[in-house]
Amino acid sequence: MDVPGLVPGASEGKGMGNQFLDSLNEADALIHIVDISGSTDENGNPVEKLSHDPEKDIKFLENELDQWYLRILKKGWEKFSRTVVQANLDVKKALAKQLSGLRVDEEIAQDSIKNLNLNHNPITWSNEELLRLARELRKRSKPIIIAANKIDVEGARFNFERLKNKYEMIGCSAEVELALREAAKHELIKYIPGEDYFEVVKKNENKLSLDKKNALNFIEEFLEENKTTGVQDVLNKIVFEKLRYIAVFPGGVNNLKDSQGRVIPDCFLLEEKNTALDFAYKVHKDLGDNFVKAINVRDKKPVGKDYRLRNRDVIEIVARK
User: Fold this and answer.
1) How confident is the model at residue 120 (pLDDT cuts 50, 70, 90)?
2) Contacts of 57 (CB under 8 A, 6+ apart)
3) Of 179, 198, 176, 177, which Cα lies nearest the Cα of 189?
4) Which tens digits make up the pLDDT trace of 179-189?
5) Sign, CA torsion 154/176/24/119
6) CA-to-CA distance for 308 and 175, rounded, in angstroms?
7) Signed CA dihedral, 115, 68, 96, 102: sign only
8) What domains appear along the chain, each with residue ranges and CATH number?
């Protein structure tokens, strides 16, 4: 989901405030788009390039998210902590249940408590320990990748080099990516998102104006220096490394093409722990309800409903008719 930028003080109700923050409950991960050229201030207003420190944007967002988690954590904390102690509940299970809306599960709760060396009596946890816990839970349940945008602006790379070892960030240029996609859309070039090159379509080369040729020359130089625009790299990193999703393709053993002749055109993203049956339900509920078996198209061997899927598997579902 695409959401507007936060403003400092959002956790205290400024801007969209807590209403906006609460809308992030459904997010598995966050991509924080930062103007690495320093030409946008913390309120989103344009300023002279390199005049604003982008690290301030990174820090304030992390702080707002931490305060948001802390607010939810402390809501009814006295009653919650007292109940845990009096009923002798497992603190990690109780905490996961309390914060399930933030995608905090038992594993995340346990790892966070262990990493912070907190005792198992939440009544004794100080406000500082609760803030540290909120920060740890946020990092684990809402991993962030920083898209350091406008890396193509002169001087922006200075900021990127200064911050890249402190934060998980990828330099990117949305403007260059958009220009490439628009040119490909109009069949002026051939371009696959994430690639480090593009090809001019010869038959349409005469449609390129001088300005467009100059723009493509700039983009070509940009790709030679940066390898990619960074946009697809951000998506790949958060989906495959942070969320650890795998790509699974539906296909038939004897037919991998659709009606338009495209080879395995569809792709589904699933969690690593998903099975062949999970995949059947992902494709269509009827396939899951009537599941008989699945076939691993690569080796043409049948697999059962409990088969653990692997990245780039091609699976055919066989169901009762």
Assistant:
1) confident
2) 32, 34, 35, 42
3) 198
4) 999 999 999 99
5) negative
6) 40
7) negative
8) 10-144 (1.10.8.470), 173-228 (no CATH), 244-319 (3.10.20.30)
